[in-house]
Amino acid sequence: MFQILHRDGLGRIGELTVNNRRILTPALLPVVHPFMKDPWIQVIKDLGFEGIITNSYILFKRKFEGKDIHDHLGFNGLIMTDSGTFQDYVYGGIEATNSQMVTYQEKINSDIITIRDVFSLPTDSWEQVNSGVEETYSRAIEAKNLTKNYMALPIQGGKFPDLRAKSARLMGSLDNEYFPIGGIVPLMESYNYSSVVEAVIVSKMNLKTNSVIHAFGAGHPMFFPLLVLSGADIFDSSAYIKYARDGRILTNEGTVELNYISEELPQSAILDKYTLRELKEMNESERTLIIAEHNLYISQKEIKRIREEIRQENLWNYTEYRVRAHPLLLDAYRKLLTFYNFLERFESRSKRSPIFYTGDETFLRPLVRRIVEKEAKNQEGLQVNKKPYSFYLGPVDTVVKTPFGNFSIYMDETYPIAQSVFPGEYYEKEIKEEIIKSQEWKDFLIRKANYIFRYQFSIPLSNLVDLKEIQIRLSKNTGKLRNIYLNDKLLFSLRAEDGLFTLAYEGAKLLHGKLEKPRQRVFVSKDISNFLLEGKNLFSKFVKDVDDNLRPGDEVIIVDEEDQFISFGRAILSPEEMRDFKSGLAVKNRIKSRDLEN
Predict the structure, then answer these.
(1) What helix, strand, coil percent values describe the chain, rounded to 5?
(2) Which of 9, 79, 390, 562 is 20 to 30 Å from 145 by CA-CA measure?
(3) Alpha-carbon gap, residue 183 to 181, rounded angstroms
(4) Are the C-beta atoms of 502 and 555 separated by less than 8 Å?
């Protein structure tokens, strides 16, 4: 049903397919009233939304019978239905049982059926919330026995992290994939973004990694980047119309009230058609429609922007920039950073985008913390403010002082030491020919290769080969190390973009022979050996086991269950994800036919 296409930390672009209806995540599902669908359905279609959510209790109460919900709404995309739980919270007195609502949603052909969970308020006691968590679990069991349809099992727990964890474990035990995080609307209404982030990530920590996380009612675009970075895949919201009725205009940075605007409207493809005066002089219904359309447009645009940031592996930078729109969003980001041990497991060792410094929080990103804790030196070193540090050749044990801390000069090109931007830093582009043509430079590069190899693979290159016997190839333009050969066979290439090694066929075999299993390995059955030897990628459903120390983006060795070398490549998923997912790419296979021929 769900697979990962791209990822950046916990943020991921996924493909969810239910009943042959597909949505790309992160996604926003606009809330549509089942009997006030016009003109919203057409607007939603025009803006490219692939899914919506509507309320099945309203349909049930009005005795809507005998018609497919897609036909009724005139929407052939994915439709999720709520069960009336939120209406019970707002209005009270829902006259329908859990079994009635589940059966009814199945009858109208809802793509994603939601059980009638027990809503918890932030003011509820631990005992009250715990009772609701257990009752919600009982209703989930009841629902699973009533239908085989795709189902949403909400995670409750109120403001109590231990009960969020308990609810997630209980619901996750029911062989389900789709989990909304319930009870967070009151938290958002009081600007308690930290508790919302905590609810999302604690729930995610206690579910399988192939779970789809839906943040119920989290519909403000300024919150989307942080929620996606925290692991949310889907949002829903009726804010677009509710805010519009009050003349409130959504932006990426917050909410603007029309009555308080004196000069220019916020920019969008919708509002740009009107002047401020024209909008204010319209009748209320027409103005509400335009503002609501803008609110939907700006929300969808932000979702698309987030997906693009994930593709560029720039979500951390983008989120740090966005959370500074509101002090309590920044507070929530700091809360997220306290979950380092969990975040780190899904964080690659390098990214396409450099790290941009925005404040002290930048130093607490899991990728930064990991390299600092592993490689930072205690002793003081050279004070330099120009990159690359290697042009300041000194003794063998030279340590350079960087904004991240003191590091060996051999790490000068390794992400993020070089791939970062701080105030006052400048890059020296001039090629120092007197340095790069010297034997001293070549000796330095061999020592550097040995050091980086140990950092990346936890074993020095000298354990694989005699460093005196290898040949190195340098970049003609920069004089930097690019390839390492042995007996004219390529072993490894040092990537210019992140200063880490890519394995070649002969190098992967050498590494396999020196590392004890399961290190650096992904295990598969012998049955698919020929499939991989043809150069085809490894999908998660074929993974039997994996080294727990691997991270997404790592160079990996693919072996059979008896540890016989098959191939090599680049990990796409984390070890947990390789085990949990039953669809989607796990490893990008790099073996070529010429490798086998030689």
Answers:
(1) 40, 20, 40
(2) 79
(3) 7
(4) yes
Cα-to-chain-centroid distance, residue 272:
32
**What DSSP character marks residue 284?**
H
Report the catalytic residues. 82
CATH fold, domain 345-427, is 3.90.1020
Q: In terms of Cα–Cα distance, which of 369, 455, 367 is closest to 410?
A: 455
Name residue, tokens 């075999």: 509
- In angstroms, what CA-CA distances link 252 with 13, 246, 274, 447? 20, 18, 20, 48
| Amino acid present at 507 | G
User: Which segments of 355-470 are extended strands (E)?
Assistant: 355-356, 382-383, 386-387, 399-402, 405-408, 420-421, 426-427
Q: Where are the domains of the chain?
A: 2-338, 345-427, 433-505, 506-597
Question: What span, in angstroms and rounded, lies between the C-alpha atoms of 493 and 570?
Answer: 14
- Tokens encoding 380: 């003081």
Can you list the alpha helix ranges (DSSP code H) found in 212-312?
224-229, 239-245, 276-281, 284-311
d(CA 55, CA 33): 7
CB 336 within 8 A of CB 31: no
Q: What is the dihedral of CA 58, 62, 66, 70, to 10 degrees?
A: -30
Question: In this structure, what DSSP letter does residue 417 have?
Answer: T
Q: How far apart are CA 151 and CA 110, in angstroms?
A: 10
What is the rounded CA–CA span in Å between residue 554 and residue 458? 13
Gap between the Cα atoms of 177 and 208, Å rounded: 8
Does residue 39 have a cis bond before it (omega within 30 degrees)? yes
Question: First vs last Cα of the chain: how many Å apart?
Answer: 41
CA dist 293 and 56 (Å) reads: 24
Dihedral of CA atoms 58, 62, 63, 65 in degrees, nearest 10, equals -70
Which CATH number applies to 506-597? 2.30.130.10
CATH topology of domain 2-338: TIM Barrel (3.20.20)
The class level of CATH for 433-505 reads alpha beta
Same fold, 345-427 and 433-505: no
The region, left, alpha or beta by phi > 0 then psi within -120 to 50, assigned to residue 48 is left
Q: Using the 8-state DSSP alphabet, how is residue 542 labeled?
A: G
- Per-residue pLDDT 10s for the chain (598 aa) are 899 999 999 999 999 999 999 999 999 999 999 999 889 999 999 999 999 999 999 999 888 886 899 999 999 999 999 988 777 666 666 778 999 999 999 999 999 999 999 989 999 999 999 999 999 999 999 999 999 999 999 999 999 999 999 999 999 999 999 999 999 999 999 999 999 999 999 999 999 999 999 999 998 999 999 999 999 999 998 999 999 999 999 999 999 999 999 999 999 999 999 999 999 999 999 999 999 999 999 999 999 999 999 999 999 999 999 999 999 999 999 999 999 999 999 999 999 999 999 999 999 999 999 999 999 988 777 666 667 666 666 666 788 888 999 999 899 889 999 899 998 876 665 556 777 778 888 898 999 999 999 999 999 999 999 999 999 999 888 888 999 999 999 999 999 999 999 999 999 999 999 999 999 999 999 999 999 999 999 999 999 999 999 999 999 999 999 999 999 999 999 999 999 999 999 999 999 877 777 6
Count other Cβ atoms within 10 Å, centred on residue 91.
9
Written as one letter, the residue type at 597 is E
